[in-house]
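User: What would this chain look like folded?
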Amino acid sequence: MPLPTVNPTSTKAWKALQDHYDAIKDHHLRDLFKADPNRAADFSLSWKDFYVDVSKNRITPETRKLLLELAEEVKLKEAIAAQFSGMEINATEQRAVLHTALRDFSNMKPEVAQALQKMKQFSEGVISGRVKGYTGKSIQTIVNIGIGGSDLGPQMVCEALSHYKNHLGYYFVSNVDGDHVAEVLKKVDPETTVFIIVSKSFTTQETLRNAQTIRNWFLRHVPEEAVAKHFVAVSTNLDAVASFGIHPENVFPMWDWVGGRFSLWSTVGLSICCVIGYDHFEALLKGAHDTDRHFSETPFSENIPVALGLISVWYNNFFQCETEAVIPYCESLSKLTNYLQQAVMESNGKGVGRNGKPITYQTGNIVWGATGTNAQHAFFQLLHQGTKLIPTEFICFAESLNGLQDHQNMLLANCLAQTEALAEGNADASNPFKNFTGNRPSTTLLIQKLTPKSLGALLALYEHKLFVQGVIWNIFSYDQWGVQLGKVVAETTLAAIENHDASLLKHPSTKAIFKNISE
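Assistant: Here's the prediction, encoded as structure tokens.
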């Protein structure tokens, strides 16, 4: 098997970590800082434009030592080498996992280089006005039609890098909710819009229904031959794409060694290219590649994704924390948590080990959050005084993009103050309702500035963090069989709804709901 198969609970380090947890579980962060005046420096990592502070976590030098020993025992180093070498580490689907190859310009696969060149030519043609619609008008709007990884990543990046966008407007259609599609179509002009359909198989139910609805709307305004000038596909199903009416020159390839939730770096990022320009897209890729090199080459003691992954395992499996929050103090990153939910929970939401046997310990944690300072006025009450221990990752940028330094000062002050308040607390013996116990853990990622390159590096950090978790938990992070069952059941349910035939349904609860729909 390409990946090592080690039950983490059978390792010496895991057993030692359990004893260690029992010994320090009640230690307060206040006391840890008092005991070590150099704690902030000792528990921080610096790399390029990133400063990562893990000092406000409930860990000691011994915790760090044992977690690193755990990484060695589960053969994390060998697993990283297996991924980067192109071995079929997605063993249940018999596929390599090489989204990192999409951003390695020093050793790029010829097919990737060719696809990037095609993306560059197309996006620059649209942006410059050389690519025109059926009536000769320049393109003004991009509509991306996809779902899951074909939507969440590109949409998140387009919004995150809106500071760098050009004149093109953009929309994303993913949900099969017809009202959403209808509202988007009210805002676009068929003569000046390009629709990018992203579906590897060109059979994805929601995407194809949305694409067909948009095509029908489009043809109410222009003749059928206009489809070739306004619809583009990112797909491998050339026959289905041709039947749709898309010109072969407007088809962009996909590869089975790129998982959907890691595909924004590929041709799936065509909408990103159009919205922010190819040069910025390439900078995004290069930032991610910087992280790839850091992850694959840096000793584990100084390795940021390894540190983040190990700390997450520490809370998940020893403190029994089921969730972790991610709070970007940057409104442009408002969709980051949605993106990370798919990346993390679809990857590590597994209950079967790499040996094919049920797992008896906790694996994938629940990721949630929102942007600060909005989140402070929503759910931070629970973080500070609730009964649940929720490790939190704070993301902030030293520099703003548009000046307004008074706003930036206030934003950073709030971010840093929250991490301090969570850690320290505030004892108030006179009023129990105002008492803050503190000892609530957090990690702070301080990045110099939000740029395409730093965003690429940040996203890759999270990709590698979840891989570290998956290796330690002895699961396959890159398959997604859990997505399939609901799709299969939905086919029968759809037939029942369309044919008004309750006999097709099996479950009594579904039948009862159906009765209320059909009445």
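The two ends are 54 Å apart (CA to CA). If you want, I can go into more detail on any region.
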